[in-house]
Amino acid sequence: MSTSTRVRADACPGVFATHDAADGPLARVRLPGGAITKNQLSALTDAADDLGDGALHLTSRGNVQLRGVTRPGLASRLSAAGLLPSPSHERVRNILASPLSGVAQELAPALDRALCAVPELAELPGRFLFAFDGGRGDVSGEGADVCWRDGALLLDGADTGLRVTAEHAVEALISVARAFVRIRGAAWRVSELPDLEPLLHDIPGEKEEPRVFDTNPGLPIGSLSDAIGVAPVFGRLTAGQARAIAKAGDAVVTPWRSILVLGTLDEDAGLIVDPQAPSLGISACIGRPGCAKSLADVRADAARVGETPRVHFAGCARRCGKPAREHVDVLATEDGYLVDGAWVPVGDLARTLARKGSAEVKGQQ
């Protein structure tokens, strides 16, 4: 475990504390477990249309960001829609849950209620992340500080050997969070603590030999039983697409910038529904002109790339929004990109990534 700590202030954006981006204030709306009702989605879309840039930007934690929020009234709108149950805790309601697991989806709102009921947990860093994995291995590899995986308790992605029933899962995660607040010092994440044992005190459960669990991230794209998995390009959901989803029913926003739509979706909504679509493997930060730190319009450059391995385009060394799973790192420079550390001119990006994709396929055969 790293013992490094951070000395600068926690600047994770929320609704009340927005981030000053180049394209205006950025507000992040937490969706515990990714769940959002059709009425809440409609309210959020109207807010983006009326107060921001008109789009919903999905994040790698299953949340939604509104960009360019230059007009007032967002907090009151979200409160009325039930999206801000606790103003004091709004930035710490970071909870992932397996989209296709009924147990995980039930535990996420239960944890949210318990979290908001503990005053001292409002002091959690905005990057502290909870997760409930129903056993598929989909969210347990997404970098959660504490994760309940079908009975196993994980810290920083590693099995502790402690086994906790679903009935006591929320209690266990709250216990870990309270212990973290007490001992964290300047640490923001569990990975920054020198000793994790104090986090496990007073948690009832059976003890087993720790295991190494497989991970299987991602939401199946396309038709599922009574639902459909869809994805907007680069995680940017237009107002029209969001309204089409809301018309279909409730939804679950995933940490892979995709959406589980719990209903029948209009086929011409303009969303990715083909599991073989090349753009599914490409993610990118906002880039220019939305971010002043970005060295390139990474989304425009990424849109010109065809078949690729899983790849993330970043406009600067912060690499905002990079996926937790393995991917090709494409980092903008003043005059091109570093592809896994090797400089490539913009004109050669498509060929370079295509070759990497071919090599990856051969390596899997």
From TrEMBL:
Protein name listed in UniProt: Precorrin-3B synthase
Keywords (A to Z) from UniProt: 4Fe-4S, Heme, Iron, Iron-sulfur, Metal-binding, Oxidoreductase
Native species: Amycolatopsis coloradensis
Matches recorded under InterPro entries: NIR_SIR_4Fe-4S, NiRdtase/SiRdtase_haem-b_fer, Nit/Sulf_reduc_fer-like_dom_sf, NO2/SO3_Rdtase_4Fe4S_sf
Molecular function as annotated in GO: 4 iron, 4 sulfur cluster binding; metal ion binding; oxidoreductase activity
Keyword Heme: yes
Higher taxonomy: Bacteria, Bacillati, Actinomycetota, Actinomycetes, Pseudonocardiales
Annotated ranges, domain Nitrite/Sulfite reductase ferredoxin-like: 27-70
